[in-house]
Design the sequence.
């Protein structure tokens, strides 16, 4: 019973933080646009299911060795000398942070 | 009762669809629906979708080659899937998962072998075109803790395949004359990061685009002993290359007269090359970074599409004057173009509009639209008889 209550509380708290971080990030329409970009345009190199192509997989296990900041930096600035391009012209730092979080969490595929 | 009748009618209709067509296939083709793992079988004379086949897995970046009787399409999926489709019966004959992650394939000169180029595990696998049983497994050179990705796989005369190794900068010729004894010739000095390859329609020259340095790598298959040669190596030197949001494709040499036309990596330009001496013969400024530069079969026009974020446009260039004669706003996600065998029409896939647009190449006017779900590659059966396609 106690455990149940605790889980509920934790879930509630998590829910709140999810709402809070969603508020800090892009609005829901923009989120949908970014996920479309991820699937189709990132997907042209990383695979539409993000399981890899010319670029490496962007799945949670593959990204676990990188910090959020490292992923954000890779997205915004690209990796010079490799085909990974900078997305700064198309994504704000906040949007990149939101996307990095999504990627680490795993995007429904 | 009415409902029952309707159900009966509908099931009869599906039954009818399961039947095979009795017709020639020379005016047929396959369109990839990249997001839903399905393909459309189409008729280029009637401008009609004949059927949709589902269950082909991850088709982002999928491509197709045809059996020499133009009845079977071999579909290469991103997920390592190789599917043999009977386009007359509108059904899958056989489907295998041959690798973890693949990028395309080719069919041998005699039509008996289908080769697939894999990113993971890096290498090329060769299958029987009949039953898709494994004939040869050619692992690529080790790179880091894996094997190099393979790219730019094409068929070449004398029962050969040619491909490049992306990570280790090599080009390999695979001779399958004796299927039991695949023979490899390796060229280890291709250059940094070859990202795609192409072969001239006569099957003589194989060329790799390089991502990691300027120029292209050329191999004369009549004289492999001469090794690889760098061409257009002055190209782009000292110039700021733009970020590339989609890798260009070299499939389908755009050749008109004695000039060849190529997408310039990281530039808003189409490169013009003199076929005699492989020297640059000009550059055509275009709307964005070209992805495909395709010549109309008679070589009179070039049709160009572009990388994100300019992928809502197609430009048509006069191959004689090198002038842009038309800019078409086809719509976001314009991914591929395919000419009918003699070039009176071009079919263009527009992903975000879920449609195929058919243009008259003489008037440059839109003739018709066809519905398709997130279409990408378009492949007509006349590819069956073209080296390198």
Sequence:
């Amino acid at each position: 019973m106690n455990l149940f209550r605790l889980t509920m509380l934790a879930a509630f708290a998590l829910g709140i933080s999810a709402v809070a971080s969603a508020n800090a990030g892009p609005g829901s329409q923009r989120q949908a646009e970014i996920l479309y970009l991820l699937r189709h345009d990132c997907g042209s190199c990383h695979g539409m299911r993000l399981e890899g192509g010319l670029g490496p997989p962007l799945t949670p296990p593959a990204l676990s060795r990188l910090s959020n900041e490292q992923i954000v930096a890779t997205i915004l600035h690209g990796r010079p000398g490799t085909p990974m391009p900078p997305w700064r012209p198309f994504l704000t730092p906040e949007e990149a942070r939101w996307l990095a979080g999504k990627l680490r969490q795993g995007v429904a595929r | 009762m009415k409902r029952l009748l309707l159900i009966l009618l509908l099931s009869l209709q599906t039954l009818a669809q399961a039947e095979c067509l009795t017709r020639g296939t020379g005016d047929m083709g396959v369109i990839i629906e990249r997001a839903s793992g399905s393909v459309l079988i189409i008729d280029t004379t009637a401008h009609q979708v004949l059927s949709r086949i589902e269950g082909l897995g991850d088709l982002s970046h999928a491509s197709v080659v045809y059996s020499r009787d133009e009845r079977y399409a071999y579909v290469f999926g991103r997920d390592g899937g190789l599917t043999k489709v009977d386009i007359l019966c509108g059904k899958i004959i056989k489907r295998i998962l041959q690798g973890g992650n693949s990028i395309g394939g080719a069919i041998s000169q005699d039509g008996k072998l289908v080769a697939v180029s894999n990113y993971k595990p890096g290498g090329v696998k060769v299958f029987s075109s009949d039953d898709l049983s494994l004939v040869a497994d050619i692992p690529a050179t080790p790179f880091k803790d894996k094997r190099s990705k393979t790219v730019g796989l094409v068929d070449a005369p004398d029962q050969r395949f040619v491909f490049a190794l992306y990570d280790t900068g090599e080009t390999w010729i695979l001779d399958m004359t004796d299927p039991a004894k695949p023979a490899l010739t390796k060229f280890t000095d291709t250059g940094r990061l070859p990202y795609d390859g192409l072969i001239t329609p006569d099957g003589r020259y194989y060329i790799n685009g390089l991502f990691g340095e300027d120029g292209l790598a050329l191999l004369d298959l009549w004289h492999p002993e001469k090794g690889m040669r760098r061409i257009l190596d002055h190209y782009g030197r000292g110039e700021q290359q733009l970020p590339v949001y989609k890798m260009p494709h070299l499939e389908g040499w755009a050749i008109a007269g004695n000039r060849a036309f190529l997408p310039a990596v990281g530039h808003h330009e189409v490169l013009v090359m003199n076929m005699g001496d492989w020297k640059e013969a000009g550059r055509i400024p275009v709307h964005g970074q070209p992805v495909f530069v395709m010549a109309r079969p008679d070589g009179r026009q070039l049709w160009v599409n572009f990388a994100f974020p300019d992928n809502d446009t197609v430009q048509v260039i006069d191959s004689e004057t090198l002038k842009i004669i038309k800019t078409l706003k086809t719509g976001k996600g314009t991914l591929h173009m395919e000419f009918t065998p003699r070039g009176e029409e071009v079919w263009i896939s527009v992903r975000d509009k879920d449609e195929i647009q058919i243009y008259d190449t003489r008037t440059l006017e839109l003739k018709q639209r066809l519905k398709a779900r997130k279409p990408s590659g378009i492949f007509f059966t006349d590819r069956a008889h073209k080296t390198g396609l």
